[in-house]
Amino acid sequence: MYKSRISGLGHFLPPNVVSNNDLSKLMDTSDKWIQERTGIQNRRWVDPENIISSSQMGFRAALTAIESSGIDKSDIDHILFATISPDHYFPGNGVLVQDLLGLDTIGATDIRNACSGFIYALSVANAYIQTGQYENILVIGSELQSPVLDKSTNGRDLSVIFGDGAGAAIVSRGNNESEIFSTHLHSEGRNALELSMKGPSAIHWIDKQDPTKVSPEIFAPQMNGTVVFKNAVVRFEQVILEALNKNGMTPEDINCLIPHQANLRISQFIQKKLRLRDDQIFNNIQNYGNTTGASIPIALSEAFQNNKIRRGDIVCLAAFGAGFTWGSALLKF
Ligand SMILES: CC(C)(COP(=O)(O)OP(=O)(O)OC[C@H]1O[C@@H](n2cnc3c(N)ncnc32)[C@H](O)[C@@H]1OP(=O)(O)O)[C@@H](O)C(=O)NCCC(=O)NCCS
Predict the structure, then answer these.
(1) Distance between CA atoms of residues 126 and 330, nearest Å
(2) How close is the Cα of 223 to the center of ligand 1, in Å?
(3) N or C, which end of the chain has less CB nearby within 10 Å?
(4) Domain boundary, last residue among 176, 199, 224
């Protein structure tokens, strides 16, 4: 069995910064409320007059990741694209990036596991590399969420949290210096509707005979914030400890935990439970909000860029989100 490693990273954030004070002009909210409950100060929302789609943001992140890995783009054997905000109902974003990059007819897979999407994609990439099927896989997490958020006071519990952006990694056949040790995936579908957007889907569609039949709420995300919070703190801790136990390590061995950027309070809770020092965890939700499937690759790429993680560090990635789904990956970076 081969080993796999992350050989390159990149991210792309749309330039349009939206502050909490900007939001308080759209809805009944305040900088104080948002910062106290979520830690978020700013997020990036694509300029509605100049939309950049999730495939285009993913493409831009991919270009940086390819350059940082030092491979030629023609060496990429497969694309895995994690998103819940694709350009089209079908086909998926992976094929759009295959075309944008001008690659040969390599396979492209889309993954729809929301906030855990990047961990799920990384796990698939790891398995493909381990079996020897592929040598270099482009893994992207990218989300364009701002257009579907309800920016009125009605939707304020959700719209203040989510942001747009993309991150990408090249997962390559490993060497002795760095490797993905293990990945761990879980789901619990009985909580599917606690965090969901029902439509558009085959059963939640616009009735062409009578468009008034459809309630607009179906096309906006819905969240039971309390249930999500309570489950997230338990599952994050469990799945991080699962990865550490599997590899005979303890929280002390982690150089950097990069949790999915759901909410700063969730990250701080996990940090406290695992007794991690401030230098053992990386958060950037303050600047970008929750970018769902893009949050881990953006944070990973930014942490690398800012020397918060270095080659050889033990890095733990962990996510929890809609499904519910959750997962972790432990690696020597
Ligand atoms: C969403 C979340 C921040 C709400 O925080 P909370 O402390 O549970 O707040 P509540 O939902 O109890 O709401 C408290 C009050 O604030 C109000 N409120 C909700 N959103 C608001 C906003 N953006 N601005 C101001 N007030 C708001 C509510 O209407 C409620 O008012 P009421 O007491 O008059 O009814 C919190 O539940 C949370 O962080 N959940 C997890 C979310 C998450 O991580 N999602 C991503 C998962 S990947």
Answers:
(1) 12
(2) 10
(3) N
(4) 176
> Atom 25 in ligand 1: which residue has the minimum CA distance?
29
Nearest CA to ligand 1 atom 15: 157
Q: How many CA atoms, within 13 angstroms, populate the side-chain half-sphere of residue 278?
A: 0
How many domains, the chain? 2
pLDDT tens for the chain, residues 1 to 333: 999 999 999 999 999 999 999 999 999 999 999 999 999 999 999 999 999 999 999 999 999 999 999 999 999 999 999 999 999 999 999 999 999 999 999 999 999 999 999 999 999 999 999 999 999 999 999 999 999 999 999 999 999 999 999 999 999 998 888 999 999 999 999 999 999 999 888 888 877 777 777 777 888 899 999 999 999 999 999 999 999 999 999 999 999 999 999 999 999 999 999 999 999 999 999 999 999 999 999 999 999 999 999 999 999 999 999 999 999 999 999
Answer yes or no: do 113 and 241 share one domain: no
Tell me which residue of 53, 134, 146 sits closest to 96, measured CA to CA. Answer: 53
User: Mutate which of 28, 150, 157 to test ligand 1's pocket (most atoms within 8 Å of Cβ)?
Assistant: 157
What's the domain range around 55?
A: 4-176
Q: Structure pTM?
A: 0.96
For residue 290, give the 3-state DSSP assignment: strand
Give the bridge partners for 44, in sequence order.
17
Q: Are residues 297 and 318 in the same domain?
A: yes
Which residues are marked as active site? Answer: 115, 260, 290
Q: Is 263 near ligand 1, meaning CB less than 6 Å away?
A: yes
Question: 243: which 2 tokens?
Answer: 């990865």
**Does residue 160 line the site of ligand 1, with CB under 6 A?**
yes
Diameter of the chain measured on Cα atoms: 62
